[in-house]
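Spend some time on the protein that follows and explain the fold to me:
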Amino acid sequence: MEKIQKQLEQVVRQLFGNDLLVELTVAPEETGSDYASNVAMKLAKVAHKAPMMIAEEIKTELGKVSEGYTIEVAAPGFLNFALDEESFAKQVAEYAEVVDISSDEYSGKTVVTEFSDPNPFKVLHVGHFYTSVVGDAISRLLELAGAKVVRANFGGDVGLHVGKTIWALLQSNYSSDDITIEKIGQCYVAGTKAYEEDETAKDEITHLNKVVYALADLGEERSLERLEIEMVAEDFGISTAEVMRIAELYWRGRKLSYQYFADFYARIGLKFDKYYPESTVAGRGLTEVKAHIGTTYEESDGAVVYRGEKVGLHTRVFINREGVPTYEAKDVGLIFTKWDDWHFDESVVITGNEQSDYMKVVLASVQEYAPELVEHTQHLTHGMVKLPGNVKMSSRKGNFLKAVDVIDMIEHELAETSSEEARSRYSSLQGCAANLSRESGLSSEEPQPTSVDTKIILAAIKYAFLRYRMGGDIVFDPKESVSVSGNSGVYLLYSAVRAKKILQKLKNEEVNKKIVQEDELQYERKLNKKIVQYAEVVRGAVQEKAPYKLCNYLYELAQEFSRFYEHVPVAGSVRVSERKVMVQAYLNVMVHGLGLLGIEVPEAM
């Protein structure tokens, strides 16, 4: 396909002196061709000729250099291309040796991909799982295109949510040795409720929030020293004993949170290159915002704001009345810190849709005094992850689906057919908001399902997330995600493992001289045609940062292989050699493509 496209571009330039973008797409099945282009119709207005006449001119000129394919013209001006069998076989044989489709589109470029972004003192939920998977897949695609990718993670180790959590920990009289991630999650919910319903608690949390900022600025070692504690106590009018309790809870909770994050990321096969706690960039944000008061930002009722209305947006606060930087100022600091650290060619920030308008204001403000940073920043957003039944989840209310719940849920779905008792006693998380915040999908009284290969569990989850186009909400259906016959990661794994088994059985097979049927050759051609489309699909997925395009292709490829498997004998066929190459090429493409999605193919299922 790439060869045809380059030759077509050259001929168009030669005949019409035009560098028009030439699009080559897979031809509809009924045309009997493999690829098609509408370039003649695009040129009609420029060349002042009928599309059919232009198409004939291109066909004549292209025929002088074409090799391995034939060209036909179809109304109202399409150019249709059909590869010959030898050309197909050559390309498929290359895939059977090695899948080498790397490009230089991002060669020499540094791309910072920022995603996941969980906040310490809060529990990872299904949304973090989703953005982690999507961010990693986009990172893998960019790496294939030659980029040096820095996977970055930005989280709020300071902020109102920390104040709410520590306030509730203090109210529960927990010591630093008592707290766990589960207790932190519970206290965040309790602190949020108190902040919203109790004015006294709200004032206490607001004051506590400023104490936490001061401790974070000092760092762990200094903020636990007696002299420093006394100074903080004096500054905020509280006892040294109280400051010591706050410091111990804060630093212990922060460590627990980051270890919890690291353990989960390791479990799903993800590693970040750089963590950016908000406390490490807040100072830079304050500096940048204060330096541009009067030009970009302005003072308003004791706070510092950006008037976004002047660019069709809305006003947001960057420094509050207490002199504390808001999320907006911290994001400003992050942009500059990432630039200082990496001098990126591109910064890709992946968040939920609810951050879209917020980020527009932040970026619009920075655009006024550091436009080059904004020009190299791309904000990608996604919708919410929902369960069937449209269950609404909220970490604020505590009825959310934890990231670990997702793994447990899928493990159960994969194993339940082997345990009738487990199936009858299992309480589905689906539709039960009260149960969504449990640490695992099964209670201690329920029978544990048979152990399932982690590769299969992660394939089910990752593919279920990635097969959707980013932007809208997605429905995560546990039963659908483990289907062995539908559009699922498990189905793709089964298909790849089936190809492995075929190749293993072919080692000592005798050839049968049975006559090859014509329909068998048609199934061969369809599979070959789909295999050789891989490079173009990956190229499109890279350009659009769209893993779903790769998912769609792999599912269609697996379906084509399934039809081939059902209708075409491989072992014992007189064409066993050719078909063995096809099966090997199919397997290589599947393994490579799934690998780009962060999915590993097991040896057996």
Summary: The chain has 24 helices and 14 strands. Confidence is low (pLDDT under 50) at residues 417-449. The longest strand covers residues 148-155.
